[in-house]
Amino acid sequence: MRWNLRLAAANRGIWKASELQRMLAERGLVISAGKMSGLWSGRPASIKLDDLNVICAVLGCQVGELLIPEPDKVPQAGQGEQSMAAAAGAPVLAVVPRRRGGRSLPPA
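Structure (tokenized):
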């Protein structure tokens, strides 16, 4: 998903995070400056549905204007964890099972 708050706000003439922050507070959603900065210029890892509801009410928009699906970034069926990690540039770690008795098996 792509987070699109800044563009949605700009489409309504809101150009500063502090202005949106004030408008949200007027509707009962008090957001710290740090969290507001993350919502404004970042890609939040999570957002409460109640908060999203207030943002949509203040901006007069639908959720689909704030959250843009990116289906091309979803792994294809059949990709294993290792190929997904490699595609993401993450190191691939091998898990070696243990035998009973605490000795590990030699790598295959």
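The chain has a mean pLDDT of 84. The helical segments are 5-10, 17-26, 33-41, 49-59, 63-66, 81-87.
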